[in-house]
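The protein record quoted in full:

***
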Amino acid sequence: MTVDAPGSEVLLETSRLLLRPWRVDEAAVQRELWTERDPRVPPHRRIDADGHPTVAELEDSIRTHEVWSTGLLAVERKASGDVVGYCGLVDSGRGAVGEPELAFELLRRVWCQGYATEASWAVLEWARSSGYERLWATVWDWNTASRRVLAKVGFTETDRKEVDAVHGTTLFTTKRL
């Protein structure tokens, strides 16, 4: 795996993947992720009854929100050149200052191929080389696949939970780097 120096445009590379800033013309991939989300995911994270967010709205988000260039990186398969999801670090405001959250989401058609784990390892190495000492991640209790990925890359579940009677319980996990 190669990791560019902190402060430069983020580009992470593994044997099968490139993690890099999103391009505006890849908004349709983000829209596909929105359409595939489990119905238990809260409505504000799914396509609404009026069809929002649209591809145009997601294009605008890629253009204007730094998170798509430095935080949630596009996961591109090197062999085929297609973008299949995102992985990266975000400051969601739910954790301690200076401890970002690892986040990932991949298209269903590439599940069970080890991409989420591989991308997460790359982001963890980048975080370590950038000086972070600890990261955390949240995951729905019903999301067994993501819980497995987090366990594989060394996150452990804490006692902190947020219970939602409709959408399930959010579990908090941490990893010391």
